[in-house]
Amino acid sequence: MGNDRRSVLGRALLILGTVKDAGGGLLLSDISRRCGLPLTTTHRIVSDLAGWGALERDGAGRYQIGLRLWELASVTPRSVGLRRVAFPFMQDLFETTHRGVHLAIREKDQVVFVERFLSPETATDRTQVGARYELHATAIGLVLLAHAPFELQEEVLTGPLAVPSWHPPVTERELRATLAHIRRSGHAVTPIRDEYLGVAAPVYGTAGTVIAALSLILPISEQYGPRLAHLQATVRGIARALGGGAGLAAGLAAGLAAGF
Fold first, then answer.
1. Is the pLDDT of residue 148 over 90?
2. Structure pTM?
3. Nearest 5°: phi and psi at 57?
């Protein structure tokens, strides 16, 4: 029976992931086809998920991720305290710069966005709260990768460096140089398509560890220097509020000394 339970759980997670990735919602038949599951099995599991609130069905019969999952995610220990502390700082940064502001954490080898402020001038339809991307494909992810454990860095650097279609190809040598530069300079800058720049800086916690990163989305024609000053002041404020003020100096020193 234990194996059966794991199998049902695995199928339920597969369905949730498939619906999430679809974005606009899926009909029951679409879920069945994309997951490779029998329609009767899909119907039973989807009904259970919808009954619990993990999925919601709209007027057209399409299933989307339900509010119950958002309620669970909103109390995740790794993000709830961070989001609560960072939110007013992010709001101040947004009101000062009138540019998009993103907060993200690292989950294994991916960057996960946990909060954002969108500017009409620089808004894109790509980044959403809860979205995951390759660490090496965004400025905010590069900051997190630059301060990730050495073993994870090597895993990413020596693995396939796939990037989104809008991102230029990157080699292992280029990425190593980029990560070293981020540790020296304390920030990352990457293009987003041909229109925007992502400018990101680390958020330090205690003991000099980087627990998150914050980014600004700017028009590519805009000089990012003045905005970077605002961004760095903001991450320092968040670090102090989190109790990581002392860790900030230690982390910067450690990054410069390591230079790996």
1. yes
2. 0.69
3. -110, 130
Output helix, strand, coil percentages for the chain, rounded to the nearest 5. Answer: 55, 20, 25
Q: Please state, in angstroms and rounded to a whole number, the distance separating the CA atoms of residues 190 and 131.
A: 18
Q: Which residue has the tokens 């305290």?
A: 81
Give CA–CA dist 18/25, Å, rounded: 10
Measured CA to CA, the distance from residue 218 to residue 225 in angstroms comes to: 11
**Residue 20 near residue 69, CB atoms below 8 Å:** no
Q: How far is CA 39 from CA 32, 35, 43, 60, 66, in A?
A: 5, 10, 6, 18, 21
Residue that has been written with the tokens 């502001």 in this structure: 101
pLDDT in tens, 67-111: 777 666 655 555 557 888 999 999 999 999 999 999 999 988 889
